[in-house]
Amino acid sequence: MTQYVPFRLLMLRHGNTFHSHEKAVQVGCKTDLPLTDKGITQAEQFAQYLRANNLEPTAIYAGSLQRQVKSAQIVHNVFNNAILSTHEKALDEIDYGSWEGLTSDAIEASWPAEYVTWKDQAIWPQHIFNSTFQHHIELLKAWLEKIAVQASNQGPIIAISSNGILRMMLHFIPSLWQSLVEQKKMEEYKVGTGHYCDLTISNLVPSIQSWNMKP
């Protein structure tokens, strides 16, 4: 039987990719935007938060998008003894398909029912996204298993991803996920740019210590 080591996981949503004068649109794994100057500052602030709180990471993981990779590199510059692993498929953002590049208003106008159920209940819209819910869950589970068999108690694990993937981590807390779906409150767990979530992982099941925190 596989022995899983409990570990602390700090998941950071990458910082801003739109300037204040730009209109934000839906961006997934097919839109590889760089961080803005503010986005770079947000990554630096997260690294400073870790340093100020004596949170020396043992490993830093990120997806393959440049906004994720750059954030990881900025944190690694402060903690260069940590293992740095980018291009982790499990941490890549969702492929939003037909919604990619559209504003939330435009999406809601063209797909009103699908947009509301996705936003409030995380119900996967059929024939719109170019990936499946189960695909991402399987990738995340395999990634958590990989970490859990080699983690140590010496420091937290850092993972840098995007909002869609961070929210999917809640699926590994079955009672919470089901409650949010039934009460249509999934939007309450949206993670802001540059914000982080503090989780304890035991036997691959997360416990939330804090969620959507600004460093």
The number of strands is: 6
Provide the succession of SSEs. Answer: EHEHEHHHEHHEE
Q: Estimate the helix proportion, in percent.
A: 25-40%
Radius of gyration: 17 Å
Proportion in β-strands: 15-25%
Coarse structural class = alpha/beta
Instruction: Kindly give the count of domains.
Output: 1
For this structure, the CATH topology is Rossmann fold
Strand arrangement within the widest β-sheet reads: 3-2-4-1-5-6
Task: Write down the overall geometry.
Answer: globular
Indicate the CATH architecture: 3-Layer(aba) Sandwich
- How far is the N terminus from the C terminus? 38 Å
Class, according to the CATH hierarchy? Alpha Beta
Main sheet summary = 6 strands, mixed
Summed up, the helix count is 7
State the low-pLDDT regions, or none: none
Q: Calculate the mean pLDDT score and round it.
A: 95
CATH superfamily, called what?
Phosphoglycerate mutase-like
